[in-house]
């Protein structure tokens, strides 16, 4: 079989050795150009490229370690959000090979069957539970040890794969207060402790695995998928895209001939077959708009010639808003806060990690509880919530059309709220010597609010605006307020009497619904889960890509990243984005056979 040339263009820093070049001039053209080396992009780049030919991947990065607000972070911020007291939120996105999988909290969750099937209901045949389940299984490599600790972790082997590229492990260290949470949630009639949420049902608390390997090291799409050099795969890092090179074909559609990259002189790289955008929910619409693909009215204001009018580009940005409820521990109890206030404890934990790969430094976020409305609201409250939705249909910057009905079904029958037990204070709090905290982080899973991201200039050096639309819809505010109040009920159970000293946030001054609404607006933050900005929807519904992930009106341009998800689901999207990469790679390979 002919070997295809693949080039990966990535504006990133790379961590491991592969086939990297400083200039693409070593090869005049490539069969496939992959723009971006993030969570989904590296899945594409890793496929058995002997059945592709010559590929080139471009990415905008360099070399670094996993940390937010660092050289491997794009360091974005949102606009001042009008419904959150004009606060601007920090918005990290990975600027390294591995993308945001090198920055995230390593949480490995899978959505429910009901949730994934909702994507298919939006006009996307073949994009339901069976497809996502297969894609996630294909990427997954669950590693577990049979020892005394295994009994703490419920899971069913039949729901998992142990041969994929992305290693998952259950925690070596599990802070002891998880049992208090499970006990109190049971008393409050939450869903029972889940047996294994990877089988299509996610209701109830469970101890989740993390993208951490058996040596307690972070697993990213780079370490998982780019661990073997390939002669026909070229990766060019420190490369940012100016625009896609377009041409009108005889069939009336646009053909992407290649890309122009930022350099001192005009630098063009050509694609013989396909160009694949895998730059994420912020980067992908930016490149499309820079190339004249987007809303013609918006582009004309920037004096960018519109080659393809797709008003959906950059719109439908959906994100998971979160709220911290923080509780101070009784004296003598420790949490991760002690790493920054107790030098002796910190050194002990560093030694324990370096020598034995054990201790608190091996821990991620593992205790997660997805709940349906009945898990934290009574029937009168549920009816009150739906009345708010009925009273506020068709308001600006919120879900509408066919997606409204699907979103409403998710709220009614899915798990609209996530409660996460975290072994530390909130990210905005400063450390205090002698004080340790735990938190219940509350995350809204199916927001009705919608935002957008768009370029504001022809200059590709100017970052796009990001409006994640938080709290545009009053139901989102109301439900977060109710969940924050419910978090207090969890901690007020007797099982916490020997653990909690007092509530720190929102504090007992917050009592009425108006008080909680105020707390939500003044403290809302993000779980960093943007999706939807190149949505897989019918064209009439402002879709950007079709179910084959091809951009409408083009012959050879696909988007394969989180931006194609048209609606938010109850999950942390990392594993789902790996699945998108796996499924997208299959579609690219299938196109060779046709």
From TrEMBL:
Residues 1-18 form the signal peptide. GO terms for molecular function: flavin adenine dinucleotide binding; oxidoreductase activity, acting on CH-OH group of donors. Pfam families: GMC_oxred_C, GMC_oxred_N. PANTHER family: CHOLINE DEHYDROGENASE, MITOCHONDRIAL, GLUCOSE-METHANOL-CHOLINE GMC OXIDOREDUCTASE. Coiled coil: none annotated. Residues 94-117, 280-294 form the Glucose-methanol-choline oxidoreductase N-terminal domain. It comes from the Eukaryota. The keyword Zinc does not apply. This is Glucose-methanol-choline oxidoreductase N-terminal domain-containing protein. InterPro entries: FAD/NAD-bd_sf, GMC_OxRdtase, GMC_OxRdtase_N, GMC_OxRtase_C. FAD binds at residues 573-574. It comes from Melampsora larici-populina (strain 98AG31 / pathotype 3-4-7). Belongs to the GMC oxidoreductase family.
């Amino acid at each position: 079989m002919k070997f295809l040339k693949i080039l990966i263009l990535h504006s990133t820093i790379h961590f491991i050795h592969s086939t990297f070049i400083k200039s693409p001039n070593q090869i005049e053209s490539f069969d496939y150009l992959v723009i971006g080396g993030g969570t989904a992009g590296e899945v594409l780049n890793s496929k058995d490229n002997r059945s592709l030919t010559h590929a080139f991947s471009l990415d905008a990065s360099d070399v670094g370690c996993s940390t937010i607000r660092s050289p491997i972070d794009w360091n974005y911020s949102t606009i001042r959000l009008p419904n959150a007291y004009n606060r601007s939120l920090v918005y990290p996105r990975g600027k390294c090979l591995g993308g945001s999988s090198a920055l995230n909290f390593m949480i490995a969750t899978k959505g429910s069957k009901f949730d994934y099937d909702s994507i298919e209901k939006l006009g996307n045949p073949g994009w339901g539970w069976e497809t996502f389940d297969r894609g996630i299984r294909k990427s997954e490599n669950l590693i577990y040890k049979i020892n005394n600790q295994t009994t703490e972790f419920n899971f069913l082997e039949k729901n998992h794969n142990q041969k994929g590229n992305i290693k998952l492990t259950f925690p070596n260290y599990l802070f002891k207060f998880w049992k208090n949470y499970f006990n109190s949630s049971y008393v409050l009639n939450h869903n029972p402790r889940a047996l294994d949420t990877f089988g299509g049902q996610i209701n109830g608390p469970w101890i989740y695995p993390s993208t951490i390997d058996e040596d307690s090291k972070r697993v990213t799409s780079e370490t998982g998928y780019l661990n073997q050099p390939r002669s026909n795969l070229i990766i060019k890092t420190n490369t940012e895209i100016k625009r896609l090179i377009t041409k009108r074909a005889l069939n009336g559609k646009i053909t992407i001939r290649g890309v122009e990259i930022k350099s001192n002189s005009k630098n063009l790289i050509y694609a013989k077959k396909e160009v694949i955008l895998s730059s994420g929910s912020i980067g992908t619409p930016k490149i499309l708009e820079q190339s004249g693909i987007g809303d013609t009215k918006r582009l004309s204001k920037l004096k960018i010639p519109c080659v393809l009018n797709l008003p959906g580009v950059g719109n439908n940005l959906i994100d998971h808003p979160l709220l911290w409820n923080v509780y101070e521990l009784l004296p003598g109890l420790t949490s991760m806060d002690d790493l920054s206030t107790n030098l002796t404890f910190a050194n002990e934990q560093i030694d324990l990690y370096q020598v034995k790969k054990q201790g608190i430094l091996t821990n991620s976020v593992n205790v997660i509880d997805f709940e349906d409305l009945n898990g934290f609201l009574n029937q009168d409250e549920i009816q009150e919530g739906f009345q708010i939705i009925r009273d506020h249909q068709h308001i600006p910057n919120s879900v509408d059309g066919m997606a409204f009905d699907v979103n409403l079904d998710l709220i009614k029958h899915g798990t609209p709220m996530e409660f996460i037990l975290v072994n530390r204070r909130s990210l905005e709090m400063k450390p205090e010597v002698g004080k340790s905290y735990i938190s219940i982080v509350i995350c809204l899973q199916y927001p009705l609010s919608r935002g957008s991201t768009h370029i504001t200039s022809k200059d590709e050096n100017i970052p796009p605006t990001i409006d994640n639309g938080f709290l545009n819809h009053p139901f989102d505010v109301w439900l977060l307020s109710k969940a924050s109040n419910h978090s207090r009920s969890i901690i007020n159970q007797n099982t916490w009497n020997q653990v909690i000293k007092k509530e720190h946030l929102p504090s007992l001054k917050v009592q009425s619904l108006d008080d909680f609404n105020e707390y939500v607006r003044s403290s809302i933050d993000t779980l960093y889960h943007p999706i939807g900005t190149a949505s897989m929807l019918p064209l009439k519904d402002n879709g950007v890509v079709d179910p084959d992930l091809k951009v409408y009106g083009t012959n050879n341009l696909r988007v394969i990243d989180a931006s194609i998800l048209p609606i938010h689901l109850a999950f942390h999207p990392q594993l789902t984005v790996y699945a998108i990469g796996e499924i997208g790679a299959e579609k690219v390979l299938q196109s060779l056979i046709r």
